[in-house]
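User: Reviewer 2 asked us to show a designed sequence for the structure in our supplementary figure. I'm pasting the structure tokens here. Could you produce the per-position amino acids so we can include them in the response letter?
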């Protein structure tokens, strides 16, 4: 194998941060109706070394009964990835799509597990189309670079 071949490997997967808040316990357990659940995901990338990247997928899950918060759980699932010899446009796809897709099942398990231990039914993080999110962000960035937000005709 040539030294110029693209290389990708998972060096380490770890739970970087975990937070659980039950601001209205134990009274919130008396609620009969299921809460409204809001799920937010956020991805961060940090270069550690020439070919090493830390990617952190943060999932924030909030459940509310009307104006009362039942729970708030935040999981920062991280990984260190070796990513070598990718073209710049392909590197963006790897760190914003491949790495978060790798981390999502770990974040999903952490959220479900901590909520179960807190006395709530588990919330399962949904499948996420990281590809379409990344493509949408690329298009938005391109539009912002164009005067008036007009895309050039190719």
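Assistant: Here is a per-position design you can include in the supplement:
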């Amino acid at each position: 194998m040539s030294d110029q071949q693209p290389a990708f490997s998972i060096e380490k997967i770890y739970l970087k941060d975990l937070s659980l808040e039950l601001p209205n316990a134990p009274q919130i357990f008396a609620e009969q109706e299921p809460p409204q659940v809001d799920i937010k995901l956020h991805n961060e990338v940090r270069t550690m070394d020439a070919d090493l990247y830390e990617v952190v997928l943060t999932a924030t899950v909030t459940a509310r009964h009307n104006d009362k918060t039942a729970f708030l759980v935040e999981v920062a699932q991280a990984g260190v990835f070796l990513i070598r010899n990718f073209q710049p446009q392909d590197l963006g796809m790897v760190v914003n799509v491949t790495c978060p897709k790798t981390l999502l099942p770990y974040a999903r398990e952490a959220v479900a597990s901590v909520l179960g231990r807190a006395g709530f039914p588990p919330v399962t993080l949904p499948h996420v189309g990281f590809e379409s999110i990344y493509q949408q962000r690329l298009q938005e960035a391109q539009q912002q670079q164009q005067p008036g937000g007009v895309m050039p005709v190719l």
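For the response letter, you might also mention the following. The radius of gyration is 19 Å. Confidence is low (pLDDT under 50) at residues 149-154.
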